Amino acid sequence: MAIKLTVNNQPQELDVDPDMPLLWAIRDHLKLTGTKFGCGMALCGACTVHIDGQATRSCVTPVSAVAGKNVTTIEGLATSAGKAVQAAWVSLDVPQCGYCQSGQIMSASALLAGNSKPTDGDIDAAMAGNICRCATYVRIRAAIHQAAETLPATAGS
């Protein structure tokens, strides 16, 4: 049975096992490889995508759970918050090895979409579970604050 969903604003129909993790549907069937496999247990955040705007770990989300929903991957992140985060990431040279960064950016942009003026505590809570083996956490937090400075105030702030 085919599963219908929208990925990066494009309607998709996937004829896959409904229990397949969304991560593998995105990478192997849609050939969008920006979303990374890290741990397979929703602990590291490398696989983070947005499902209807919410940061979600795709490695443990069955593709059947996103039927009829909107999925955004790093390749399709075009929101004002997403653009601000990406610009700040470049400006502050956040990535070191870069492997975790698509998941970091997806989590940060989901935070800023709802709270454009987050405190350090808000950032820590939103980014909890996003692991960076290179320990660029100080630059990540600084980039989120820099991105926030470019955004108008939102209801979550």
Care to give the gist of this entry?
With 157 residues, the chain is an alpha+beta fold. The protein is 35% helix and 13% strand. Strands 2-1-5-3-4 form a five-stranded mixed sheet, with helices on both faces.
Topology:
Layout: E1 3-7, E2 10-14, H1 22-29, E3 48-51, E4 54-57, E5 70-72, H2 80-91, H3 101-114, H4 120-127, H5 137-149
Parallel strand pairs: 1-5
Antiparallel strand pairs: 1-2, 3-4, 3-5
Helix pairs in contact: 2-3, 2-5, 3-4, 3-5
Write up what this structure looks like:
This protein has 157 residues and is of the alpha+beta class. Helices cover 35% and strands 13% of the residues. It has 5 helices and 5 strands; from the N terminus they run ββαβββαααα. The protein has helices at 22-29, 80-91, 101-114, 120-127, 137-149, and strands spanning 3-7, 10-14, 48-51, 54-57, 70-72. Strands 2-1-5-3-4 form a 5-stranded mixed β-sheet, with helices on both faces. The longest helix has 14 residues, at 101-114. The radius of gyration is 15 Å and the shape is globular.
Question: Which terms summarize this structure?
Answer:
157 residues; five-stranded mixed beta sheet; 5 helices
Instruction: Give the fraction of residues assigned to helices.
Output: 25-40%
Strand order in the sheet with the most strands: 2-1-5-3-4
Q: What structural class should be given to the helix and strand makeup?
A: alpha+beta
SSE pattern:
EEHEEEHHHH
